[in-house]
Amino acid sequence: MRSGELAVLLLLPIAMINTIGFILPVLNLARLSFNKVSLGGGIENVFTWENWFGLLTDSFYLELVFNSVWISLAITLTTLVVSYPIALYLHRSSGPWRTFLTVLVISPLLTSAVVRTYGWIAILIDDGPVVSAIRALGLPVPSLMFNIKGVFIGLTEILMPYMILALMAGFGRLDPRVEEAARTLGATPARTFSKVILPLTLPGIALGCLLCFVLAVSSFITPKLMGGGRVFLLATEIYDQAIVTLNWPLASTLSILVLIVFGAALWAYSVVLRRLD
Amino acid sequence: MEIHKTSWPMRVLVFALFLYLLAPVILVFPISFSGDQVLRFPPTFWSTRWYAALFQNTKMLNAFWTSVVLAAVVTALSIAIAVPAAWAMTRLKFAGKDVLFNLFTAPLLLPTIVLGLAILIVFASFGLLATMQGLVFAHLVVTLPYALRVLAVALSTQDQACEEAARTLGAKPLTVFFRVTLPMLMPGIVAAAALCFLVSFDEVVITLFLTGPRISTLPVELYNYVYNQADPLVAAASVLMILLTLGIIMIVERAMGLGKTFVK
Predict the structure, then answer these.
(1) How crowded is residue A240: how many other Cβ atoms within 10 Å of its Cβ?
(2) Domain ranges for chain B
(3) Model confidence pTM above 0.90
């Protein structure tokens, strides 16, 4: 048997699953975004820009897209700020201690998003530990659940492991001797950070931000469970349109919109990367 | 050699951030032993009533067994499909290899909410909604990229001198594969299998689109439960899920080192 024939034979099963479970469904999704729902509730197989025009002229959807992108950006930046010290600390530690801490960073990643979101509900719920602590301090008690605040806090934590791993992957260029040199030449710690450490770790920062933004825009479980039906984001709207309203063409259009946002994020990432080189 | 003396404020900061990162996972342990009727922390008294309630909840138990069977079947199929594919990708010469590899791992790049919707629409016309076959197929779409990636890395870093030696000594290609390549690939297979099992067992967004009252998985049941009410029952289930995950991680750690599998 020739090498090519053997390859076809061995790759046939994975190619079939990829085609039926990935390529066809996604193409179908793109096609459906140009169909519309008929009066009887079925899908009319006609070519129309109706969904797209409807989306771009409806203030609810414009706000939805704007909100999703803006909130995802804010969550991404917060995640970066809280992840950076951990990544830097991990990068500088060594031996079994480093392995142990790396396992700690990865372990939430392997815990179901439902479980972690539930944990946050337990922490942020009215009369929960955080609210009680704030009340004990005599401060005004904020409502942290079933609004965007809870979603923000929970999602930031859920994205942290991805950010930390991406940052660490990009920290390879950070040679401790370079920092050492800056310090011996008289730079203050703050100056060493802003002039040496930060520039060298920018590629890792860009990668981590891309990854977290993409995950935030498409996050579904946390906004749905912690938003209490009051937080409307792209992903939750796709689900509601698909399962509750059963408007598949609209859900498809929103999905393609998410992919367009993804494309824009990737483009921004490549621009940043080119600037850095 | 410790070059860096990490300052105390930095240590405190890192500790606080670790606490934030691990808080939700740690907190479910004490809550699962709560004696209260409602979700409250710290609990007013301790008991194991929620574990008892969990083991009497037939819906959850059925969902748990569905998840275990589903994850086991998906894992076995993933390995059976990905090992030949990874071997072809790393040992054979043919055109368009890179394109194919990217295509086969592309489902990972797609947000699960989009992939879930896309699969829902296609499966609806195939009559695969709320069936075990449908769930197995959908999970394979997301587990195969992981399996292929881990196995391809394992195969390409494998020392090929042994295969070479076996071949020169007259072993047939199949014998070389089953007596040399496959045994040497075992750590990679264990890691890929554990990863597939975890991905399938924890998968919730795509599964949410494809399940119904007839068939449901544990993460989906937990999602539905939390969506409707928040009491310590879910904490008890969460603890069991975390322990299961820990067990599987230990297997991977034994097989090839966790850091290597995920950080690289």
Answers:
(1) 16
(2) 57-228
(3) no
